């Protein structure tokens, strides 16, 4: 059976299953896109008694689902059209932008650029120029990561350290690229 599951990892390896839906959803379609496999084909084969390792992707010849993609989803609330509206994160949003990559760092950078082309990624915005919206939260969080107090963000926000370390990887690469300069130099 194909299902969509929402899982919360409050702290460490202790987790809670928030919901499980035995249906196809937008998230299922995203998984299909990320893994380069057909949901209908996979569901039909499983219904006929096949196991996942028996199902080969016609393009890659790997068993399905492909497990080496990371997908990052970022909400876009489209609040710029409305005046006098609260900009906090809420359960309702206008759209979800998603990007896949072979590493979290790649997929989050792609997803941020999809939300708004003015954002070049984690490092691409000046902190003073940002107007807070949920969609640019990773950019705001990424800004202080090149300062000594970066992991203090975990204590203040509760954002898991794994994500902060991944954002810090992006900042470190950005610094290395800045040090190199341009290819024409």
Automatic annotation (TrEMBL):
A Pfam family the protein falls into: CPSase_L_D2
Sequence ranges assigned to domain Carbamoyl phosphate synthase ATP-binding in this UniProt record: 17-24
Subunit composition and interactions: Heterodimer composed of 2 chains; the small (or glutamine) chain promotes the hydrolysis of glutamine to ammonia, which is used by the large (or ammonia) chain to synthesize carbamoyl phosphate.
Keyword Ligase: yes
Protein name in the entry: Ammonium-dependent carbamoyl phosphate synthetase
Catalysed reactions, semicolon-separated: hydrogencarbonate + L-glutamine + 2 ATP + H2O = carbamoyl phosphate + L-glutamate + 2 ADP + phosphate + 2 H(+)
Keywords: ATP-binding, Ligase, Nucleotide-binding
GO molecular function: ATP binding; carbamoyl-phosphate synthase (glutamine-hydrolyzing) activity
One Gene Ontology cellular component: cytoplasm
Gene3D superfamilies noted in UniProt: ATP-grasp fold, B domain, Carbamoyl-phosphate synthetase, large subunit oligomerisation domain
Highest taxon in the source lineage: Eukaryota
Pathway the protein takes part in: Amino-acid biosynthesis; L-arginine biosynthesis; carbamoyl phosphate from bicarbonate: step 1/1
Protein species of origin: Pyronema omphalodes (strain CBS 100304)
InterPro entries, alphabetized: CarbamoylP_synth_lsu_oligo_sf, CPAse_ATP-bd, CPSase_dom, CPSase_lsu_oligo
């Amino acid at each position: 059976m194909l299902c969509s599951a929402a899982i919360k990892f409050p702290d460490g390896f202790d987790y809670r299953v928030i919901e499980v839906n035995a249906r196809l959803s937008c998230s299922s379609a995203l998984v299909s896109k990320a893994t380069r496999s057909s949901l209908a084909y996979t569901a039909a084969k499983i219904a006929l008694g096949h196991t996942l390792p028996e199902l080969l992707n016609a393009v890659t010849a790997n068993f399905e689902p492909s497990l080496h993609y990371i997908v990052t989803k970022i909400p876009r609330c489209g609040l710029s059209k409305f005046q006098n509206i609260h900009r906090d994160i809420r359960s309702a949003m206008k759209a979800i932008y998603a990007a896949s990559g072979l590493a979290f760092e790649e997929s989050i950078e792609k997803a941020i650029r999809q939300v708004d082309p003015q954002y070049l990624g984690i490092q691409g915005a000046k902190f003073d120029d940002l107007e807070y919206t949920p969609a640019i939260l990773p950019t705001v969080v990424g800004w202080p990561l090149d300062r000594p107090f970066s992991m203090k963000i975990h204590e203040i926000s509760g954002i898991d350290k794994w994500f902060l370390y991944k954002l810090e990887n992006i900042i470190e690469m950005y610094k290395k690229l800045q040090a190199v300069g341009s290819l024409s130099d």
